[in-house]
Amino acid sequence: YDDRDGSIWMDGDLTPWREAKVHILTHALHYGSSVFEGERAYGGRIFKSREHSQRLLDSGRMMDIPIPYTLSEIEAAKAETLAASGLSDAYVRAICWRGSGDDMGVASARNPVHMAVAVWAWGAYYGDAKMQGARLDISKWKRPSPETIPCFAKAAGLYMICTMAKHQAEARGCSDALMFDYRGYVAEATGANVFFVKDGKVHTPKPDCFLNGITRQTVIGMLQARGVEVVERHIQPDELDDMEQCWLTGTAAEVTPVGQIGEHTFEVGALTRSIAEEYEKLVRA
Ligand code: PMP
């Protein structure tokens, strides 16, 4: 990804893509001190842009990474980078991190916090066979307890678990992994939330130790507007057997049907299809 034309916004200016670099003694590289956002623009407009900027600021606050920009400055930086990209449908990555400075130990309060925004074209997250139903592995790595780390932050440190889970999944021929939480309840995939359909109701894990995704909240709103009952609760792994349909939600994943999780299989049913279609329309509305 480093060898491309284009510009990346870094600390206030658009920088040529290939020159957007950090020093090897960047605190974030050694200790994971960064927070970020994943967003999508459709038709030249970032969907739920303010919500993402606000979550970036919230993540920074939760992870003790004070972001030196206001919400409107973050909005302006994203808009400027998107416009410079010339893309109308694009993925937007905003990131803030502890840089190199006076500290090289675990503490980094004296190191500056930087921000960058990069925009690139990114198609369907799970590939072109999106509507056929993704196959998911079951991860041996669990979402940590809220007492372990600020689990509602979108922070780099939390993604190491996801990367390991996804590597194992891909090695087994799956597109992603379902992770359980520290208590053993069904939690989420490595970069997306999960929903199930059973007897006309939608069940989704209660987000009490993982990201309550912006797409998740959008989809819950869509279901409720249709009068579909959405039950947010703790879901036991053995309940997967009884679930009829399953889909993932996320900015990158959008609404992606799931055909299989481990040994459990699901139908790509009418509700899954129509929610995926409605989401596609909504993001461009
Ligand atoms: N969980 C994780 C671990 C994620 O990385 C994401 C993607 N940001 C989500 C859930 C879904 O969040 P959103 O809908 O806000 O993109």
TrEMBL record:
<dbReference type="InterPro" id="IPR043131">
    <property type="entry name" value="BCAT-like_N"/>
</dbReference>
<dbReference type="InterPro" id="IPR001544">
    <property type="entry name" value="Aminotrans_IV"/>
</dbReference>
<dbReference type="GO" id="GO:0009097">
    <property type="term" value="P:isoleucine biosynthetic process"/>
</dbReference>
<dbReference type="GO" id="GO:0004084">
    <property type="term" value="F:branched-chain-amino-acid transaminase activity"/>
</dbReference>
<dbReference type="GO" id="GO:0009098">
    <property type="term" value="P:L-leucine biosynthetic process"/>
</dbReference>
<keyword id="KW-0032">Aminotransferase</keyword>
<dbReference type="InterPro" id="IPR050571">
    <property type="entry name" value="Class-IV_PLP-Dep_Aminotrnsfr"/>
</dbReference>
<dbReference type="InterPro" id="IPR005785">
    <property type="entry name" value="B_amino_transI"/>
</dbReference>
<comment type="function">
    <text>Acts on leucine, isoleucine and valine.</text>
</comment>
<dbReference type="InterPro" id="IPR043132">
    <property type="entry name" value="BCAT-like_C"/>
</dbReference>
<comment type="pathway">
    <text>Amino-acid biosynthesis; L-valine biosynthesis; L-valine from pyruvate: step 4/4.</text>
</comment>
<dbReference type="Pfam" id="PF01063">
    <property type="entry name" value="Aminotran_4"/>
</dbReference>
<dbReference type="InterPro" id="IPR036038">
    <property type="entry name" value="Aminotransferase-like"/>
</dbReference>
<keyword id="KW-0028">Amino-acid biosynthesis</keyword>
<protein>
    <recommendedName>
        <fullName>Branched-chain-amino-acid aminotransferase</fullName>
        <ecNumber>2.6.1.42</ecNumber>
    </recommendedName>
</protein>
<dbReference type="GO" id="GO:0009099">
    <property type="term" value="P:L-valine biosynthetic process"/>
</dbReference>
<comment type="pathway">
    <text>Amino-acid biosynthesis; L-leucine biosynthesis; L-leucine from 3-methyl-2-oxobutanoate: step 4/4.</text>
</comment>
<comment type="similarity">
    <text>Belongs to the class-IV pyridoxal-phosphate-dependent aminotransferase family.</text>
</comment>
<dbReference type="InterPro" id="IPR018300">
    <property type="entry name" value="Aminotrans_IV_CS"/>
</dbReference>
<keyword id="KW-0100">Branched-chain amino acid biosynthesis</keyword>
<keyword id="KW-0663">Pyridoxal phosphate</keyword>
<dbReference type="GO" id="GO:0005829">
    <property type="term" value="C:cytosol"/>
</dbReference>
<keyword id="KW-0808">Transferase</keyword>
